[in-house]
Amino acid sequence: MKKSFWEAGHRPTLIAAFLYFDLAFMVWVLLGPLGVAISADLGLSPAQKGLMVATPTLAGALLRVVNGLLVDRIGPKRTGTIGQLIVIAGLSVAWAFGVHSFAGILALGVVLGFAGASFAVALPLASRWYPPEHQGTALGIAGMGNSGTVFAALFAPTLAQLFGWNNVLGLAVIPLVIVLAVYQLMARDAPGTPAPKPLAAYLSPLGSGDAWWFMLFYGVTFGGFVGLSSSLTIYFNDQYGLSAVTAGYFTAACVFAGSLVRPLGGAVADKVGGIKSLSVMYVIAAIALVLVSSAPASAVAALGLFVVAMLAFGMGNGAVFQLVPQRFRQEIGVMTGLVGMAGGIGGFYLASSLGLSKEATGSYQPGFLIFAGLALIALGGLSAIKKRWRMTWGAAVQGVRI
């Protein structure tokens, strides 16, 4: 990595944004790795399992818009602090009193949505410190907080087996409190932040078709990543009979791949252009999902295909957010919220549709095939608008390839 990158921004804030995002994502998808134990305890159907793991994703998607507005009005550091306190309080209450019903687990999922909304805080917190030529790399590093989902998949099933799944909720509070303290010490809002605007002005980007395109593109890349992150433990358990712990390890391998390459995706997009990079990722993801829909004969074969899909989605996430700050530099807070909301909705759709597909047809195949089709639709849209983008706002950004 070039030395000029580290000199261009504020390293402690970048590290704080990553750590906050990392731990927030760990608890955001916590119900997925705990899903086998929870569903056995509460007697959930396949559709209920899908809705259980999808609820935090949908709640996080909607709350990202709220966080995007707050970031532009009170700053990312304060917004992040509020969200962390809500999640810590919610997990503490759930652990102390227990969760004994499907309605209760859905309520907990809504609270965990505040952790998923961290996306709309961590990325602007880092982005505002870096110039255009380093946006892909900076947001890739901050966005690598997706890797928190690896910790959930690796440790939650084992801890649930040892101590019970409800006690895992209390154990999760410990690292959250530590990271909150680090965040308070290291994070700083960037100077030169735009002055707060009237509330209605924050939604003005929705008047641009470009905003809707970005929402579609991220709905597929991030939706694929978080939807699979939430669902794969249950999938490997149902489809191949793996134990909850082994299924968690398989899920962790997939999630690790997708998280690790997010900064690489941003750096590649900085080098070759976000449009070209994103186009290739859609093709790879669609092929991998079509192949996995055929229910490979072994769990290892399925694992290989999921890793390929997650690599494509992870790099695609980095590519999308190499482009967004170039087009919406002055509205990066609210655009992060809107685009992030679309990503969360994509994840909700994938996770819930897999459960519905399994219950309705006895197979996960329709859910995977439809999402592969969405990746191809996004590819078609990107192909249709790329020339206009390069000739308009892309041409106005000096020294940056889109």
From TrEMBL:
<dbReference type="InterPro" id="IPR011701">
    <property type="entry name" value="MFS"/>
</dbReference>
<feature type="domain" description="Major facilitator superfamily (MFS) profile">
    <location>
        <begin position="12"/>
        <end position="390"/>
    </location>
</feature>
<feature type="transmembrane region" description="Helical">
    <location>
        <begin position="12"/>
        <end position="31"/>
    </location>
</feature>
<dbReference type="GO" id="GO:0016020">
    <property type="term" value="C:membrane"/>
</dbReference>
<dbReference type="GO" id="GO:0042128">
    <property type="term" value="P:nitrate assimilation"/>
</dbReference>
<feature type="transmembrane region" description="Helical">
    <location>
        <begin position="138"/>
        <end position="156"/>
    </location>
</feature>
<feature type="transmembrane region" description="Helical">
    <location>
        <begin position="105"/>
        <end position="126"/>
    </location>
</feature>
<feature type="transmembrane region" description="Helical">
    <location>
        <begin position="299"/>
        <end position="320"/>
    </location>
</feature>
<feature type="transmembrane region" description="Helical">
    <location>
        <begin position="273"/>
        <end position="293"/>
    </location>
</feature>
<feature type="transmembrane region" description="Helical">
    <location>
        <begin position="332"/>
        <end position="352"/>
    </location>
</feature>
<protein>
    <submittedName>
        <fullName>MFS transporter</fullName>
    </submittedName>
</protein>
<dbReference type="Pfam" id="PF07690">
    <property type="entry name" value="MFS_1"/>
</dbReference>
<feature type="transmembrane region" description="Helical">
    <location>
        <begin position="240"/>
        <end position="261"/>
    </location>
</feature>
<keyword id="KW-0534">Nitrate assimilation</keyword>
<keyword id="KW-1133">Transmembrane helix</keyword>
<dbReference type="InterPro" id="IPR044772">
    <property type="entry name" value="NO3_transporter"/>
</dbReference>
<comment type="similarity">
    <text>Belongs to the major facilitator superfamily. Nitrate/nitrite porter (TC 2.A.1.8) family.</text>
</comment>
<keyword id="KW-0812">Transmembrane</keyword>
<keyword id="KW-0472">Membrane</keyword>
<dbReference type="GO" id="GO:0015112">
    <property type="term" value="F:nitrate transmembrane transporter activity"/>
</dbReference>
<feature type="transmembrane region" description="Helical">
    <location>
        <begin position="364"/>
        <end position="385"/>
    </location>
</feature>
<feature type="transmembrane region" description="Helical">
    <location>
        <begin position="51"/>
        <end position="70"/>
    </location>
</feature>
<feature type="transmembrane region" description="Helical">
    <location>
        <begin position="168"/>
        <end position="187"/>
    </location>
</feature>
<dbReference type="InterPro" id="IPR036259">
    <property type="entry name" value="MFS_trans_sf"/>
</dbReference>
<dbReference type="InterPro" id="IPR020846">
    <property type="entry name" value="MFS_dom"/>
</dbReference>
<feature type="transmembrane region" description="Helical">
    <location>
        <begin position="82"/>
        <end position="99"/>
    </location>
</feature>
